Automatic annotation (TrEMBL):
The keyword Transport does not apply. Pfam families: CoA_transf_3. InterPro entries: CoA-transferase_III_domain, CoA-Trfase_fam_III, CoA-Trfase_III_dom3_sf, CoA-Trfase_III_dom_1_sf. This is Crotonobetainyl-CoA:carnitine CoA-transferase CaiB.
Amino acid sequence: MSALPLSGIKILDLTRVLAGPLSAQMLADLGAEVIKIERPGGGDDARAFGPPYLVDPEGKENNNNSFYLCANRGKKSVTVNIAKPEGQEIIRELAKTADVMMENYKVGDLKRYGLDYETIKAINPGIVYCSVTGFGQTGPYAPRAGYDAILQAMGGLMSVTGHIDGEPGAGPMKVGPSIVDYMTGMNTSIGILAALYHRDANGGEGQHIDVCLFDTVIASLSHWAQIYLVNGKAPPRRGTWGNGGMPAGVFRCTDGELMLVVGNDGQFARTCEVLGAPELATDPRFVKNNDRVVHGKEIMAIFAGLFLKKPMAHWLDELEKAGVPSGPINNFEQVFADPHVRSRGMEIKVEHPFEPELSLIRNPLTFSGTPVKDYRAPPLLGANTREVLSGKLGYDDAKLDTLKKQGII
């Protein structure tokens, strides 16, 4: 088996909470050595975003909650107080041999510590320095802090998410998970990998990458935002209705609900057969997909009445036979019990100081030649401080003890 794709890449990770840590976790999964810098005592802000927390074997309170665990596997935790000159010097020393430095502080914050891009570039010209923020390094909103839900609102995502106007509970709605953070993490990884390739393929020059949640959420709206750019009209909220093929949405059966997406005219005709109403496929209102979009409320109401006649398992089985995309609306228990999910190994087990087998979600990338198989649990706060500072900077025990007494590490 070949080495992992990013073996040999060294990353200094000063990001906290979710978007930046998710990106650094992705790079760690792919073989990069990721040194996560945390505040002595408190650590990453995400450690306080609980409960639930893992159960400490000795019954002590701890800071290993689900929010932190989801985004920090495979890293080394080093505690450094960057507010003190000695701590700043530690970061600069580590940056000298790093390929990548990541941070998500407010714009300008690290400059006062001598940890900004220009300062780090002066000591390591080849470094890829990535800044992850809410609103970017430029523009009138640059100084603002930004969290996922705020960007879902400001970026337009909430305006097109929620029940259809006129229905009970209608109005803007936030997507459940922190989806903008996750997408920003993916964009961050893409940017870092592209900059590393450019550096190594074009003369060894590093650069500064500016990634932000605001840009990401706007770009993610894709064809929804493009509708507005084409005709100047914002698309309405569609609830569970689909974004192209019609009919598409959630339909209630006698014992549950399913999601259906009819993607083309052939699938529509086959769905009508399954539902026992083949005549709908030749109804002038519904023959072509564009017709069904115009008469969306009518066809959705008709389908709703037909699906109510039989149980969910019956419809899912018949729709699958007919080659029409559909699926159950699973909760998390059902997701992780699903035979396909289990066959894909999406739940992994790692050894953790608190649990012999801690469940995590595997990296979604599957490589034929360099598979990601050996996962390491998210580290306890400061677990690798002595190892890293002694091994990389040559600090002896006496110096490490002094730094700890001074509150530097």
